[in-house]
Design a protein that fits this description.
The protein is mainly α and 286 residues long. Helices cover 77% and strands 0% of the residues.
Length: 286
């Protein structure tokens, strides 16, 4: 028997309360923050109220100064705290909307372990950011699968109908459709996490498409964070920033190639051949 709307909302609220209690327990049992560097950082309630999105530059700088000092002696607490917050905000969908990029920039600014020598891009930061995004998305998918059907049908019926209609254009390739809606601006990220569990999308497709689609955005935001870190430590070096920006642009372009639909790739390849004259040569040969 399916859950009613009231039961679904009650369970959703109960899961959220448990998450908040877990965060409170983690904070209370963690080593204390250095007061000199951490007096003005945003709190979890500030994030819920949207301060992290309204004032991202100040929020990131305050958090960076605080956590950089805290991380020196408490690496695991810092890492698990940031990663856990990332995952929780992704799981609870609209309540964490807009925080992903800010947290990714913060991760890029905070971690320099396993850095690539030319760009100083941290593979550790990439691992933390991408795994948080993917695991949080999977948590949202499972949350919706368990308790979200009636909530979405009641509060987002029009978006659900649009999702189903778009799905009809990709018959025979559910994975392509999953990849399309993951990068499409038609649907918010949190809605994709919640809704795809209810339209028959296999979890394996959701997981694989999420992992592929997040790479360019994660690379961009983490690279922005690493540049901010370098500016804070070494000052502004336009030549170095230009070189790193060019290398990151090439990297993002390569990472974006798997996101091109197969049909569009074939059409583009055919147009390029015609523009270069290969099509005419083949026709004459025939």
């Amino acid at each position: 028997m399916g859950l009613s709307l009231g039961q679904s909302l009650t369970l959703y609220a109960a899961f959220m309360v448990l998450a908040v209690l877990g965060v409170m327990h983690f904070v209370q049992t963690a080593p204390p923050l250095p007061q000199a560097q951490c007096s003005e950082i945003v709190t979890p309630m500030d994030v819920i109220r949207g301060k992290l999105v309204r004032e991202p530059q100040k929020s990131i700088l305050d958090l960076w100064n605080c956590l950089r000092e805290y991380k020196k002696d408490n690496w695991w607490h810092t890492t698990m705290g940031i990663w856990g917050m990332y995952v929780i905000f992704k799981i609870f969908g609209p309540f964490g909307a807009g925080t992903s990029m800010v947290l990714s920039v913060l991760i890029g600014a905070l971690y320099d372990e396993w850095s690539e020598p030319n760009t100083r891009y941290s593979l550790m930061a990439h691992l933390i950011g991408v795994s948080g995004e993917v695991m949080g998305g999977c948590g949202g998918w499972l949350m919706s699968y368990c308790v979200g059907r009636e909530i979405l049908l009641h509060f987002a019926a029009e978006k659900m109908a649009t999702l189903q209609a778009e799905m009809g254009k990709f018959q025979g390739s559910l994975f392509r459709y999953m990849l399309f809606i993951r990068v499409s601006p038609l649907f918010p990220n949190w809605f994709v996490n919640y809704s795809t569990a209810l339209i028959g999308m296999p979890f394996s497709y959701f997981l694989a498409a999420s992992f592929i689609a997040i790479q360019p955005a994660a690379t961009m935001s983490i690279a922005m964070g690493s540049m901010l870190r370098d500016m804070g430590e070494d000052g502004l070096d336009l030549v170095k920033m230009g070189k790193r920006g060019g290398m990151m642009a090439v990297t993002m372009a390569v990472l974006s190639l798997p996101l091109i639909p197969a049909d569009d790739y074939a059409k583009g390849k055919a147009k390029l051949k015609r523009a270069l004259g290969f099509g005419k040569a083949e026709s004459k040969g025939e």
